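for the writeup, i need someone to sanity check this before i put it in the appendix. the sequnce is what the collaborator sent (i think, or maybe the updated version? ugh). structure was predicted straight from it, no edits. if anything looks off just tell me and ill rerun, i have time this weekend
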Amino acid sequence: MKPIPVVFHLGPLQIHTYGIGLALTFWFAYRYFAKRLRDHGYPDAWFGRAFVWIVIASVVGARAVHVIANLKGAQGYAQNPGDILAIWHGGLSSFGGLLGGVPTGLICARRWCPELRLGVALDLVAPVLLIAWTVGRLLGPQLMYQGGGNLTHAWYGMAYAGEAGKRVPVPIIQAAEDAVVYVISLWVERRIARRGGPVGIVVTTAVTLYGAFRFNDEYVLLPHNTGGDVAVIVASVAFVAVGAGLAGFLLWRDRGRAHDEVTDPWRSPSAPADTDGQGRGAPDRRRGAPSGPSPMPEDNDGGEVGAMSEDD
């Protein structure tokens, strides 16, 4: 079995499949998050300029964490500083991407969309990141130089450029894991919507499950011989602990609270209370909202419009 090509030529240009996959993944994430903003009544015009900063911060953060975690050793970046910027060979840390991209996105949202609360923003973006990682694993690490895992003689082993023998197809496995967490997150989102809250459960569920799967990947499927590998394992455990702890706290704090007929706890406060799925406003069914027919407007004399006057 031959490795999947990681580079091809278009005239004098050298095109890396990893870069194309990364660009398509970012584009997909942008369109999906913009749709989720609109679905919950938030403007999305601000997100275009914010996304440029998010992409830059994500790539810089992902590369920086990877380089720092792999400085030492014969193949480390301290001995090969010319490879630090060679991102077309792969080497982008998911945790570093989160460290750079998420705070940048939240800062931009705070500045350009202040009605988007922190917890709401995190709940809305969590499924986007999960499905983007699913797509990104298949279009990124699966198509990059040395993208495989440990050596294997099993039937599912695949050949990867720059690696001898068949390898565990870790990117495909991780894509499947992220897809599972994505589906679970959407299910949790539907349950929370029916319950009316609390906000924050979607993102904490995603963080917990993502950390659990990453721990399995790093500890079982991938070699962990460097300090960077150990750091990823520790970060995965921290994700599980923090995510599960915050989810438990949010549910405990919300116990006994009546949410009445709140059907969208992530709804923009400046938008109609609900939508019909087409972006049009629906009657406000939140607690305290008026129900029944609207009273007839009054004329300037205090009588009802259309009421018969004594002169008639």
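The longest helix spans residues 227-253. The beta strands are 7-10, 13-16, 274-275, 281-282.
thx in advance!!
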